[in-house]
Design brief:
Distance between the termini: 30 Å
Largest sheet: 6 strands, antiparallel
CATH architecture of the largest domain: Beta Barrel
Number of strands: 14
Helix content: 10-25%
Mean pLDDT: 86
Strand content: 35-45%
CATH class of the largest domain: Mainly Beta
Number of helices: 3
Number of domains: 2
CATH topology of the largest domain: OB fold (Dihydrolipoamide Acetyltransferase, E2P)
Low-confidence stretches: 1-20
Shape: globular
Length: 243
């Protein structure tokens, strides 16, 4: 998983040194509840050791950083002992500094290719000392028994400068029924729904909307768990889907 970047951010990244941290573009910020349910593992862990991985074709260059961390507490998933976190040395790197002996809150997914764990550099992972709000939200999620929330934004296009569309009707259709709301002046919407699976779409005559390139979740495949949420982005399409 790579942090979400628009073309401008990607262009800037090309001129930065390889050691630069992530450049985080829209959509931001990543919601804790959404990242929590899309992570295979969420832990509090202490950094024990750091090492560098070098490309065999360029022994002088660093292709990645590898971090060994001792798991102190599991918040999602089951694991014990020490974990290995792989971080490619590119513009997807974390926005925080790794310091030996420091504790971190990490939202992780497993990478079979690297035989290790990875994180979204533009997500909610970071030093545990700065994670009070995220931990509070996780505690609320774990205690939840009801439904969840679908968050989103609708854009006029995906070209710069980014523009949004207010006043659009948004519908979420699922096994429990249909739910609707309207985008605000920032083109954003939010609706409370029961736990279940949903398809989110814009209801508009004459204009068609589809999943935006950098949408965190697919609007046609939304899963809401108790206490969870989804974060979607839609953009105006040039033509009707299927034509």
């Amino acid at each position: 998983m790579k942090c979400c970047l628009y073309l401008l951010c990607a262009t800037i990244a090309l001129i930065l040194p390889q050691s630069a941290m992530s450049i985080c573009g829209a959509p931001q910020p990543r919601l804790v509840c959404a990242e929590y349910f899309h992570s295979q593992l969420v832990v509090e862990a202490t950094l024990v050791q750091s090492s560098k991985s070098r490309d065999k074709d360029d022994p002088e260059g660093v292709s990645a950083n590898v971090y060994s961390l001792r798991v102190n507490r599991e918040l999602r998933g089951k694991i014990a002992g020490t974990i290995r976190v792989y971080e490619a040395n590119d513009n997807s790197r974390a926005t925080f500094e790794w310091v030996s002996g420091r504790q971190y809150l990490l939202f992780l997914f497993h990478s079979p290719d690297e035989e290790s764990w990875e994180l979204d550099g533009c997500g909610n992972s970071g030093p545990l000392s700065e994670a009070k709000m995220a931990l509070t939200e996780i505690a609320t999620i774990k205690a939840a028994r009801g439904g969840g929330v679908i968050h989103g934004v609708v854009r006029d296009s995906e070209e710069l400068p980014l523009s949004v569309i207010p006043g659009l009707r948004i519908e979420a259709q699922g096994t429990t029924g249909r739910y609707s709301t309207t985008t605000n002046e920032k083109g954003e919407f939010q609706m409370d729904v029961p736990a279940g699976k949903y398809i989110v779409r814009v209801i508009d005559d004459g204009r068609f909307f589809d999943k935006a390139l950098f949408s965190y979740e697919d609007p046609s495949k939304i899963q809401i768990d108790p206490g969870g949420c989804a974060q979607v982005e839609l953009a105006k399409a040039a033509r009707s889907p299927g034509r």
